[in-house]
Write a structure and sequence with these properties.
It contains six helices and five strands, in the order αββααβαβαβα. It has 250 residues and is an alpha+beta fold. Keywords: Coiled coil, Membrane, Signal.
């Protein structure tokens, strides 16, 4: 073989070797690129998962804080409720004592149309009109003092009580040029309030007058006895619940 042929053979072998190495390099570079791309995707997914985990943790912390606040508010509400219940129980006891005291003061009038009772958080003192007024008039009769004087003595010992005086009539038509049943019931209530203010020095700011005419019956108006029961004045004693109301305010 000539030197020329030997050289050609060597060059050909080198070319073949170089060609194989280049393909391997290209394959390796392609694999690296794929791995880098996959790594990038994994990095992105990992970041997304970290962000979601942070959101979940933040949400859990918020829920935990809200739950803690809710538990505290529930406890506060429970304590307020217990306090209100205790105050209401105390007020109920005071009203029962007041009812008993008024009943004792008016015991001599039990058979004269006076009734003292507790209803819906109020103490009622009901007096039939023949004890307080002249027939068909809002003017107080001389014997009204029998009922109002001992009652006023009790009321003056309870200065925080609010007093509503409510007049009521039967359904017998009563009408004059200036008044009817409704007006008569209101004027009778006004007459009692004026007497309590002027004769027994009860603070007028404590008192309210009202009249319901024939629209608040407690008995059958078709009978004489029923009409007599319906012609009445109710003195309604209302405890001062402002302290209880203030205790439930935020």
């Amino acid at each position: 073989m000539t030197i020329k042929n030997v050289c050609l053979c060597l060059l050909l072998a080198a070319g073949i070797s170089s060609c194989g190495t280049g393909k391997k390099l290209e394959a390796a570079n392609a694999q690296i690129a794929n791995l880098q791309a996959a790594n990038g995707e994994l990095t992105t997914k990992n970041k997304d998962l970290e962000n979601k985990l942070a959101e979940i943790q933040a949400r859990d912390e918020k829920i935990a804080a809200e739950l803690k606040r809710y538990v505290a508010e529930c406890q506060e509400s429970k304590e307020k409720l217990m306090a209100v219940q205790a105050m209401l129980k105390d007020e109920y006891g005071k009203l029962q004592a007041l009812k008993d005291k008024i009943s004792e003061a008016l015991v001599d009038l039990d058979d004269k149309g006076v009734n003292v009772y507790y209803k819906d958080g109020f103490v009622y003192v009901s007096m039939e009109d023949n004890l307080l007024y002249k027939t068909g008039s809002s003017a107080l009769s001389p014997k009204a003092k029998e009922a109002l004087s001992p009652l006023a003595n009790v009321l003056n010992s309870y200065p925080d009580l609010k007093i509503i005086v409510m007049g009521n009539t039967d359904d017998q038509m009563f009408k004059s040029k200036t008044t009817d049943n409704w007006s008569l019931s209101t004027e009778r209530a006004n007459g009692v309030i004026r007497a309590l203010r002027d004769d027994y020095k009860i603070n007028p700011a404590r008192m309210t007058a009202a009249g319901k005419g024939k629209y608040n019956p407690i008995a059958d108006n078709s009978t004489k006895e029923g009409k007599a029961k319906n012609r009445r004045t109710e003195i309604i004693l209302n405890p001062d619940l402002e302290k209880i109301w203030e205790s439930v305010q935020p």
